[in-house]
Design brief:
The two termini are about 25 Å apart. This protein has two domains: about 280 residues, Aminopeptidase (3-Layer(aba) Sandwich), CATH 3.40.630.10; about 110 residues, Alpha-Beta Plaits (2-Layer Sandwich), CATH 3.30.70.360. The strands form four sheets. Strands 1-2-8-3-9-16-10-15 form an eight-stranded mixed sheet, with helices on both faces. A four-stranded antiparallel sheet has the order 4-7-18-17. Strands 12-13-11-14 form a four-stranded antiparallel sheet, with helices on one face. It has ten helices and 18 strands. The chain is α+β, with helices and mostly antiparallel strands. Bound molecules: zinc ion.
């Protein structure tokens, strides 16, 4: 079965996640893809393939040697709809502007990454949906590698531990992950873009929620009495370094990001996310916010100001560095496939960040797909096929 056909089949199934439901999976429709994948895994001889109550698909292909894990996520991003995906094939991209079916255009001026794909075959959207190559390209790569071992039973391979997760896009991929069932010594997420990139470094990430209760009174008689929650919120923002926002940062720089502010003069709530590659850097960002809250509380004793932090994920680098075997193997296999590996830091996180922190070292590899989370998402078919070869070689003995 052709790997591209496989990819197209998967992207046509709507698996968009939701941050509103509070369930796992966050949307039942993610299981539609899970059901299909279990059937296909069984057909490929992975006899224990099944989907658990949370919608996570597990399967193993027994071999000799190391137990190596492969993971990709079934859900798609929330920003643009995943309903009625109609992929379009562009054979031998000549460069220049790509016109999508509904009037949207994708030009190299706007997306310089396109220049690297001249002469390759691309899959694009019709402009109405995202493509869902994030991460169905990863799923198709893993399934195509399994197809190869099915079709070539004499080729020796390691034991391949497969998991397809749900809800990666809302940061909940590892929430109910069964490490014991997966039972891999180390693993790879196939959830990146450029095939030359190995991502084993990411942000430390915290969310912070601030609640402010002021004192409400008729403004006409408010002198010395009205404590305005919104003004306290405003003051808090002014106490943070002006230049350390997502707008002002790149590379290895971290930030505070005010993502939500709701309220009136009596009650206000604020939500922040904090990001930093360094352990002491993220601690410092937490402390700066705590200190600011303490100062404001001292200044306005009549108000009630509280802050709560929630850890979202950790930088996987220090865990990966302690057990570099997964990285070493990936680098060697990429070189064998004519790719010079590049280490990249993700200004975000993957399921692998949490897996690594929990002892399952899981760097991220590319899929050959780009412009994730939007209507300009595309897949480079040659790069996608290259990654199938890489994954096959990763699993070979
Ligand atoms: Zn992804």
């Amino acid at each position: 079965m052709d790997s591209l056909e496989r990819f197209i089949r998967y992207v046509k199934i709507d698996t968009q996640a939701s941050d509103q439901t509070g369930t796992t999976p966050s949307t039942e429709k993610q299981k539609d893809l899970g059901v299909l994948l279990v059937k296909e895994l069984l057909d490929l001889g992975l006899e224990d393939a099944h989907m658990d109550e949370y919608g996570v698909v597990y399967a193993h292909l027994e071999g000799k040697g190391t137990r190596i894990g492969l993971n990709a996520h079934m859900d798609t991003a929330l920003e643009v709809t995943d309903t009625n995906v109609k992929p379009h094939l562009i054979k031998d991209y000549k460069g220049g502007t790509i016109k999508l079916a509904n009037g949207f255009e994708m030009s190299p001026a706007q997306f310089p990454v396109l220049r690297k794909h001249v002469g390759h075959d691309l899959v694009v959207t019709d402009g109405n949906t995202l493509l869902g190559a994030d991460d169905k390209a990863g799923i198709a790569i893993i399934m195509s590698a399994l197809q190869y071992f099915h079709d070539n039973p004499k080729v020796q391979h390691n034991t391949i531990c497969v998991a397809f997760t749900v809800d990666e896009e809302i940061g909940e991929g590892p929430l109910h992950f069964n490490y014991r069932k997966f039972n891999a010594k180390y693993a790879y997420t196939i959830d990146g873009s450029d095939p030359s990139m190995i991502e084993a470094e990411n942000f430390n990430a915290y969310a912070a929620k601030v609640n402010i209760t002021g004192v409400s009174i008729h403004p006409g008689e408010a002198k010395g009495k009205l404590i305005n929650a919104l003004l306290i919120a405003n003051e808090l923002v002014s106490m943070l370094p002006v230049k350390e926002t997502p707008f002002d940062s790149e590379g290895k720089q971290g930030y505070w990001h005010l993502g939500g502010l709701n309220g009136d003069s009596e009650n206000a709530s604020m939500s922040f996310i904090l990001r930093d590659f360094k352990d002491d850097g993220i601690k410092n960002r937490i402390n700066v916010l705590k200190d600011a809250i303490n100062k404001l509380q001292d200044k306005y004793p009549q108000a009630k100001i509280s802050i709560e932090f929630k850890e979202q994920y950790r930088n996987m680098k220090k865990f990966v560095d302690k057990k570099p075997i997964a990285l070493k193997r990936a680098r060697a296999v990429m070189r064998k496939n004519g790719i010079e590996p590049v280490s990249a830091a993700i200004r975000g996180g993957t399921d692998g960040a949490t897996f690594s922190r929990n002892g399952l070292i899981t760097p991220n590899l590319g899929t050959g797909s780009y412009n994730h989370h939007g209507r300009f998402e595309f897949l480079d078919i040659q790069e996608f096929n290259k990654m199938i070869s890489v994954v096959i070689d990763l699993m070979k003995k």
